[in-house]
Design brief:
The chain is mostly helical. Among the domains are: 50 residues; 169 residues, no CATH class. Helix content is 64%, strand content 5%. It has 18 helices and 3 strands. The longest helix is centred in the middle third of the chain and has 58 residues. It starts with a strand and ends with a helix.
Amino acid sequence: MPTFQYKARTRQGELVSGSIEAQDRRTAVGILSRKGYVPFHVEGGTAKPASTSSAGGTNGKSARKPGSGLLGLFGKGTAKPQPANGKTSTRPALQPKLKPSTAPKPRSAFSKTTKGFSATNLLGRWGAPGRLTIKHKPRLRDIARFTRQLANLIKAGMALRQALASLSRQTDLGLMQPIVHDLHEQIVRGSSLSDALSQHPDAFNALFINMVRAGEASGQLHQVLRQLNEYQEQTLELREKVTTAMVYPSFIMLVGFGVVVFFMTVMLPKFAKMFEDFGSGLPASTQIMVDIGLFCRQKWWLIALIVFGLSLLFKRWKSTPDGRHRLDSWKLRMPVFGRVVRANAFVQFSRTLGTLLGNGVPVLSALRILSRTITNRVIAGAIEEAEAKVTDGTTISQPLARSGVFPNTLLEMLSIGEQTGDMPGALDNIAETYEQEMDRDIKIMTSMLEPIVIVVMALFVGFIIFSILMAVFEMTSGLTS
């Protein structure tokens, strides 16, 4: 029987290693899980030579059946069937004989014709391992729900394999459900959780993967998952604050735009026809509005095409490194909205760096992960420059100060944390400080945007009404004369 070398941790976090005999890797992982271990490394599978008198083996060959083990379970390495006449069949195993023109294409694990999600769909039509692909990125809320539930199950004493199996059967995880199913399959095959997470970069970023890897090494995986969930919930709360603050101004702008379009495309043409019937000319302001409304009604397709083309050009420009850098720099310099963007970026910076350093991630690795996590490229570039300076032995606050991006308050609080040796605590204080500042800036921005939007919309609507009234006054004056 094959022998597998394993490394695992007990429920108390102690590291254990050794060897175990099992028919295949899946069976070995199951035996270790039943013993209360959490395996994170299982390799080997070398069969011990059997003697001629051992059951099931002859001529010193192994008694292991062909096609068993991990490859046999997932459709590879399956022994070819032997026909009754003793000749070797040339037809591949598990492959039905199909004509090239009528051979069905393998279904994707997420095909529209596939009802639900199953391991058969994930592994392929004929049992060959498939590649898990998703078209849409899972929502942060679904990832946070998965992280919270996984942390609670592990804390309750459930093994990682059993916890993932339980989560894969739930239906409230959205796009995370097939990903969780794939994570469970990889854990059963002997992969570590961090390695399995790295196969899904659209769902789990470098921060999540490295934090989990640190939790596996320290034996405190459930605590790391709870910290990650707190970080995700705080990020969601920040997003909701900004989104909620923009709901009312956006609604007013949408209603005002609809009123302007209605007056210009429906009401003004009716007034223009009425004035033409009376034989009176239109004032210049009214004629301009009528011409604009007529152009919008007749050439709406041209306007839509121009808007669509400009949006494509803007999207392509924004995807370039120079365009992304210029746009992020412009966001930071905006009069009112820029204060909210800066505060949000500083909260993200301090929360992420504090979480990484608090879980034992080295400074250089933490800065490297942080530069990939920060969405603003101006701040991310300053962090990358700081990473290069830190390798020379300097502190974090000094190279960050040279970038000119970070405020003095943040740098001074960071410097105090470096002097006292409590960087995570200092970063938590920075996050709380700028989170309060962001709340105040959001209230200021909302209180300023609402009257500005109302005044702008009132000017547009007022100009249209003024144009109509001017035409009416001119027509009535012509009738009286």
